[in-house]
Amino acid sequence: MLLFKYIVPFLLVFFSNTAVSDALNVKLHGLGYSLRIGPHTDPSEYQCKTIYDAFLDMSQLKDVTDNVRIFSLTDCDSGNVLLEATQQIGGLGLWLGLEADSFYQFIKERTKLIELAQSRDFSNVVGIHIAGDGLSLGKTIQYRNYIKDDLVANGLPDIPVVVAYEMDTYIKTPQMVSLDNSLVHLKIYPFFDKKTTINNAANYMAEQIALLGDIGNRQIVIGETGWADNGFNAAYNPANEPSMQKWLRDFICLANAKKWHYYWYTAYDSNWENPTGVEGHFGLFTKDGVLKSFFDDFSIDCDEPAVNIDPDSKTFPPIPSESPSEVPTQPQSPSPSKNPSIEPSLAPSWNPSDLPSSEPSLDPTFGPSMNPSTLPSTVPSGEPSTEPTSTPTSSQPSTSSQPTTSPSEAPSYKPSGASSISTASQNVETTVKNLEFTLVGVSELDGAALDGFAKTTEQWYLQIYGSTGIRSRRALQITTLLSGFTTDVIVQSQNVSEESNTLTYDQLLAFQTPPESAGVDPYELVESPFKNDVLRADYFNLLVASHPAFANITDSGSVLRRSVAPMVDGQLGNESPDDGGQGGMSFLFIWILAGLGCVLVILQVSFVMHRRRREQKRRSVEPGAAVEMDSKHNLFYTSEESRADEEQQSTLDGTLANPKVEVELDSSWARFGPEYEDKNNILFVDVPGGRLGVIVDTPDDGPALVYALRRHSTLRGQLKVGDRLLAINGEDVTDYTATYITDLITDLSHEPARTFTLMRLPKFPQKK
Asked: Which residues have a Cβ under 8 Å from the Cβ of 331 and sit 6 or more positions away?
C-alpha cells in the first residue's frame, strides 16, 4: 500500500506551463500551508486534503517559494504527509509547527514528533516552532527544552527550535528573544493593527522589529504575515485586493532589504473558517488552487518607489491602457500623439487636435469624425472605415473574409470565405469498447468485487473530469472545457492467471464541449489519467479501499489498452485480394453478422450468469444448521476511513426498547432461538431514501445484524448496533447474506421510504 500511497515518481512538469510561473517575477522565501479544508464537525472525508492533493499543491508551490511552513504535526497527519510530499517533489524546505494550546495537545504533538524523527527523513526540515500564544515564560522554556532533548536523542541536534509569539509578547518579555542562539521567530500582521494603514505598513513593521533591540547575530524569521483580500471586520484594516497586492510587494521589498527570512500567510484560501469574515482570505491562491487574478502579470520591482493607494478602495488605481478607450477623452490633447494608437477608438473625437498625427493609425476609426482636422493625414490609412463617408470612395463595394454575426439589410456583393460558426455546445455520447486492464496480484473477482471495480473507476474519472477536477485536468494538460461529464463502466469478462486478473470492459462517456472546441478523443480521456503517476496512485488507493479482493494488488506493469485493433476505413486488418470491392464488402458483412451473433450470445450468457449469481447470494438454512459467514458490507460506504468508526461501534451493545407496533411473528423465525418468538423484541423503522451509513454483517447462522453506524448515519438513534434485520418492506431477509441485503437496499434507495423489521436482542453476539 505504501507503494501507491507515497513512493511514486512525480513528473509534474506541467505546472511550469501554468500562469503560476509567469505571474510572479520573484520567488518567496516561504509560504504557510495547511491540509485542513473543513471543520472537525464535518465527515472525515471533508475535513482534510488527501496525500494526492498535497503532492499537487507542493508541485505548484515549488515554483513560487523555497519553503513551506505547517502549523501542526497531528492535524490531518500533516507532519507525515508533508514530509513525504516535499521530499518526493524535491526542492522544498519544510518548517514544522507544534500546537500547544493545552498540555494535552502539546503531548500529542511531541509524541508525533518523536515518532516521525525515528521513522522519517528530516533532511529538508529547516526549523521547528511551538505555538506560544498564551504560554508563560516558564512553560515556554520547559516545552522548548523537551523538544530539543527529543531531537538530540534522535540524532538531530542542529534543527533550530523556537517558540512563535506575537510581537507584543517579545516587547513585554524581552528574555524570550534569547531563547535560541540562532534566530528570533515572530508573527507580525499590520493588517490587524488599525494604528497603521496599508500605505505605512512597511514602516510600521520595521519600527516594531527595531523594538527588539540588539539581537546579536540571530536571524529574523517572520513566521507569519499577510493581508486579507476579502471579508469584513471593523476591528481590522480594510480587506481588499489592492491592499493585499501592495502589502505583498512592500513586505517582500522590506524583507529582502533587511535580509529577513519570512513565511507569507498563506498559500491557499480557507473560506470554510468564516465565509463572511477575513480569516479565510489570506491566500495567494484560491481554495481550488488557482492563482488570484490580480496577481496575473504582477511583478515586483523594489527599485521603483512604493505607490500609495486608497485603503478603502476595492478597485485598483488606473494604469495606461495598451488599447484606446471606447470614447475619446474630454478635452482632447492640445497636440497630436507622436505615434498612432495601436487600435482606433470606438467613437470619433468631437474636437480633434489642430494638427493631424504624423502617421496614420493602423486601423481606421469605427465612425467618421464629426469635426475633421484642418489638415489631412500625411499618409492614408491602410483599411477603409466601417461606416461610409459622406461621399463614396469607390465604385465597388468592399468584401469581408469572415461572416457577419447578424444578417445585413441587403445581400452581400460577394460571399464571405469562411463558414458560420455555431454557438451551441457540442454534446458527446460515446462508448469506448474492448478495454483491458490487468490487475497484478488479484485473483478471480466475485460480483461484489467487480461492482467495486466499476464504481471505483467511475468515481475516479468523475473526480478528474467533473466540476471539481480542474487541477487534475491541469495535470493532464487537458485544455478543453468539459461539462456535464458522466461515465459508466460495464465489465464484460475476466481472465485469471497465476499472477494477475485481466478485466475486459466497455466505458460509456457523456459530456459537453464548447462550440469552438476542436474535439476530444474519448480514448485519450480514458487512457491519459493512467499515464500520470499521481492520479494512478490515487486510483489504486481507491480500488484497494473498495473491496478486500484488491488488498494485494500491485502496480507492476498494469496498463490500460485496447484489446481489439481499431477499425480503419470500415475494415479490420488487411484487405483481401482485389475483387472489384465485392469481396471486401462481403467479408465485412460476414464479420458484422458474426459480431451481432457474438453480442447476442454474450448478452444471453451474461443474463444467465447474473441470475445465477443473485440466486447464489441467497443461502438455504434448515433449522439448527450452521453456516460459517464472514462477509461484512457497508451500505453505500466502503473506505479505509470508516474502519476506526466501525471498530468503535462494533464494541457497543444494543439495548432493548418497547415496541410501537403490534405484529404477528413469522413462525419460521423461531429456529433462531426463543427470543425470536417474543413480540416485545420486534421493532419497525421507517427508513428514508438515499444513503444510510449503516454497516451490516452475517457473522453466524442467524439473521444479518447491524454491525456499525457511521457518525453521520441518518438512522442514528433509531437503529442500534446488534439489531437483527428480519424483513425489508415485508420481504423476509433472514436467510439472505449481507451482500444480497446490500443489493436489495441499493435497489430501493430511490424510493422515498423503506420499512425495516428488526429484532432487538438483549446483547450483541460476538463475532466468530
From this structure: 351
Residue type, 383: E
H/E segment holding residue 57: helix 51-61
pLDDT tens for 357-373 read 555 654 455 445 545 55
Q: Is residue 498's pLDDT more than 80?
A: yes
Q: Using alpha carbons, list the distances in angstroms from residue 343 to 321, 324, 358, 612, 696.
A: 11, 7, 16, 74, 71
Per-residue cell: 159: 534543527
**pLDDT for position 711:** 66
Do β-strands 694-697 and 632-634 pair in parallel, antiparallel, or remain unpaired? antiparallel
Judged by phi (left if over 0) then psi (alpha if -120 to 50, else beta), residue 174 lies in alpha
656 to 312, 653, 682, 696: CA distances (angstroms): 64, 10, 10, 19
pLDDT in tens, 442-458: 889 988 889 888 888 88
Question: CA–CA distance from 371 to each of 183, 374, 425 (Å)?
Answer: 71, 9, 46
- DSSP letter at 245? H
Specify the pTM: 0.47
Report residue 436 as a C-alpha cell: 483491458
Q: Nearest Cα to 285, choosing from 199, 226, 223, 238?
A: 226
Strand order in the sheet with 483-496: 483-496, 500-513, 426-440, 560-562
In angstroms, the Cα distances linking 135 to 73, 148, 161, 183 are 19, 18, 16, 19
What's the confidence (pLDDT) of residue 96? 97
In whole angstroms, give the CA distance from residue 482 to residue 479.
9
* Cα–Cα distance measured from residue 75 to residue 36, given in angstroms and rounded to the nearest whole number: 8
Q: Which residues pair with 164 in a beta bridge?
A: 131
CA distance 535 to 531: 8
* Helix 103-119 × helix 78-89 angle, to 10°: 40
Taking residue 600's Cβ as centre, other Cβ atoms within 10 Å add up to 10
- Highest mean pLDDT: which of 12-16, 586-590, 756-760? 756-760
Task: Report how far residue 437's alpha carbon sits from residue 78's, in angstroms, rounded to the nearest whole number.
Answer: 34
The DSSP result for 553-599, as a single string, is: -B-SS--EEESSPPPBTTBSSSPPSPSTTHHHHHHHHHHHHHHHHHH
- Any residues with CB less than 8 A from the CB of 587 and at least 6 apart, and which? 571, 576
Sign, CA dihedral 93-99-105-106, equals positive
Which H or E run includes 85?
helix 78-89
Q: What are 105-139's pLDDT values in tens digits?
A: 898 999 999 999 999 999 999 999 998 777 787 88
The string of pLDDT tens digits covering residues 632-683 is 333 433 333 334 443 334 333 333 333 334 445 677 787 888 878 777 788 8
Written as nine digits, the cell of 628 is 460459517
Q: Work out the angle between the directed axes of helices 533-546 and 51-61 (0-180°, nearest 10).
A: 170
259: left (phi over 0), alpha (psi -120 to 50) or beta: left
**Contact of 291 with 244, CB cutoff 8 Å:** no
Q: Do the strands 219-225 and 183-187 form a parallel or antiparallel pair, or are they unpaired? A: parallel
Maximum separation of any 2 CA atoms in the chain, in Å: 113
Instruction: Identify the DSSP state of 413.
Output: S
Short-list 696, 734, 431, CA closest to 562 = 431
Interatomic CA distance for residues 604 and 419, integer angstroms: 49
Q: Could you tell me how far CA 15 lies from the centroid of its own chain?
A: 15
User: Which residues have a Cβ under 8 Å from the Cβ of 692 and sit 6 or more positions away?
Assistant: 635, 636, 713, 714, 715, 745
Report helix, strand or coil for 305.
coil
**673 φ, ψ to 5°?**
140, 165
pLDDT of residue 594: 77
Q: Which of 494, 455, 487 is nearest to 639 (CA)?
A: 455
Select from 179, 245, 241 the least CA-distant residue to 216. Answer: 179
Residue range 252-301, pLDDT digits in tens: 999 999 999 999 999 999 888 777 789 899 999 998 889 998 888 788 88
